[in-house]
């Protein structure tokens, strides 16, 4: 019993994930922080993006 996201919702999540990963890689954070945030966004697409928006590296 999992959560399925398809259609426009899935597309929005995909766009947000790609945007977050691009911003993470372009940030001035340490390499370890970049890897950690990228893994979090990839493994937990919805929660990872929300946490990144709230607590991620700013620059």
Overview of this structure, please?
The chain is mostly helical and 59 residues long. It has a domain of 32 residues. The protein has three helices and no strands. The termini are far apart. The mean pLDDT is 87.
Q: Extract low-pLDDT stretches.
A: none
Oligomer: single chain
Q: What percentage of the residues does DSSP assign to strands (E)? A: under 5%
Task: Tell me the distance between the termini.
Answer: 39 Å
- Mean pLDDT across the residues is 87
Structural category is mainly alpha
Topology, number of strands:
0
Question: What is the count of DSSP helices, taking H or I runs of 4+ residues?
Answer: 3
- What characterizes the major β-sheet? none
Q: What order do the helices and strands follow?
A: HHH
Helix content: over 70%
Overall, the morphology is elongated
**Radius of gyration over C-alpha positions, nearest whole angstrom:** 12 Å
Features:
mainly alpha; 75% helix; single chain; 3 helices; 59 residues
Blueprint of the fold:
Elements: H1 7-26, H2 31-43, H3 45-55
How is this structure best summarized?
The protein is mostly helical and 59 residues long. Helices cover 75% and strands 0% of the residues.
